[in-house]
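idk why but the lab printer keeps eating my pages so im just putting this in chat instead. protein + zinc ion:
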Amino acid sequence: MVTALIKRYKEPLKKFYLRYRKPILAVYIPLHRIGRRRKCYVCGKTFGRFTRYKGGSEYFPEWISRLQMVGSDVNNFGCPYCGSFDRERHLFMYFDKLDLWQLVRNGHVLHFAPEVHLSKRIEKEGPAEYVKADLFPANATIRKEDATNISFSDESFDLVLANHILEHIPDYKKALREIWRVLKPGGTAIVQTPFSKVLKNNFEDEGINTPALRAYFYAQHDHVRVYGEERFMSALQEAGFMLEIARHNELFTEQETGYYGVNGVEDLIRIKKPVS
Ligand SMILES: [Zn+2]
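predcted complex ->
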């Protein structure tokens, strides 16, 4: 009933929301803090619910739900205290479980689209070099870098973090070649990206060229394709990487998945540049 009403009045509600966003969120977000069923892996606070991304999965086009997308958990998205997103919390869990922090300690790290909490933790671990990079830097601590034309010389880094960025890049194969180039032999990259378990090939079309069309067909206004799982994994191997996928369900229990609000089917896509 409520859902049907919201769907019917979606456009005027959207206008109302955009106009009064700040006061609405000031009331709405703290409501999620009531209860103790969930815990944020990043800030350690317990609360009742995570915030949803754009109303949650039921507001995504049917086309997207039929593609069985593996990506962000849009129903358990933001922490109502620290604002961390599910994909950032999930990386913390993987880093702890697999002790990926040892790649950071005294290592050379290139971090694209750096998540705030993960960045702080990396800095604490004491890397030899830590480069925060983005095509559109949000502040002066982030260096302007194009992932398809990285300004660093060959074999500069032990670890490259590219968490949910490849779905934004038109020439993603070039980005993979660049990541390969700047990694030292034996170096690791983390390249999480949303993909479909249904599609055999990637889906993209030049005609899908407006934010509204991209939001409909690719699930987000600034995505440029939907990857097919097999095609994406093959592209990683074709770029020369060894796949070292860490399976969520082999590392975490169902209870942990729900408690910490992360996507139980999103495995860690860890790739390595071979020591030739
Ligand atoms: Zn938090």
